[in-house]
Design goal:
TIM Barrel, 8 strands, globular, binds pyridoxal-5'-phosphate
């Protein structure tokens, strides 16, 4: 199967409310261009050192997503162009993104990465930490970032129930943080509003709309559990070496 075929197959298979991020890490420019010429415009990379040069060399209507762990000292290299950062895992990192975005006269969309897997090696905030961050004074004062959703990675396991349980937990947190307290919207309604925070301030800049869950091995389960954005690498480009 060609990359173009893989892309169109995905586009046909996934529901229209789910966005496909083509994860192009480790793949060369020519390979990414194949996907680009097949109409794909959203690409994800997990390392700044790889993302920055690829952004330079590839067409500028590509939307680049940073999906991997981000060190504060690297934010400045992607702040001028990155479309979405999936991997905010500390207040300190968010403050740095805010600072670099201001220098670039931008507002950068970010997702909070929440640790839902059993593996200790995966990055991310606990639910408590995510909650605390969203309610913090520091966050409410940041003018150059927008938290538009959440990202989570399930445990790498064959146990489907385990994966499903982890995605469900993130969906539950997502729902409780984007609904108004009195509203009781239908299960699948897209949520464009966030409940007022505990301190009474309405977080105008916090609209959780994106739920980034699912990769090649588990995207089907993720979509069943409410994912709105999947990050797929190997099923599009082939196995990484
Ligand atoms: C590599 C990577 C993916 C894609 O993985 P595949 O198994 O190749 O689909 C998704 N999300 C993150 C955070 C990754 O690092």
């Amino acid at each position: 199967m060609s990359i173009a075929n893989n892309i169109s197959q995905f586009k046909n298979e996934i529901p229209s409310h789910v966005t496909l991020v083509a994860v192009s890490k480790t793949y060369p420019i020519e390979t990414i261009l194949e996907a680009y010429h097949a109409g794909q415009r959203i690409f994800g990379e997990n390392r700044v050192q790889e993302l920055a040069p690829k952004h330079q060399d590839l067409p500028h209507d590509i939307e680049w997503h940073l999906i991997g762990h981000l060190q504060t000292n690297k934010v400045k290299f992607i702040a001028p162009f990155v479309s979405l950062i999936h991997s905010i895992d500390s207040l300190k990192l968010l403050q740095e993104v805010n600072k670099c975005a201001e220098k670039s006269h931008r507002v950068i969309d970010c997702l909070l990465q929440v640790h839902i897997a059993q593996e200790e090696t995966k990055f991310g905030l606990s639910f408590e930490e995510a909650e605390k961050l969203l309610a913090s004074e520091e966050f409410s004062e940041m003018k150059h970032i927008r938290i538009t959703g959440l990202m989570g990675m399930a445990t790498l396991t064959e146990n489907e129930n385990q994966i499903r349980k982890e995605f469900k937990s993130l969906k539950h947190f997502f729902d409780t943080h984007c609904q108004l307290p009195t509203a009781n919207p239908p299960k699948d309604s897209p949520c464009g509003r966030i409940r007022p925070l505990a301190n009474g301030s309405a977080q105008a800049d916090c609209q959780l709309k994106i739920l980034s869950m699912g990769m090649s091995s588990d995207y089907k389960i993720a979509i069943e559990e409410g994912s709105t954005m999947i990050r797929v690498g190997s099923l599009i480009f082939g196995a990484r070496h």
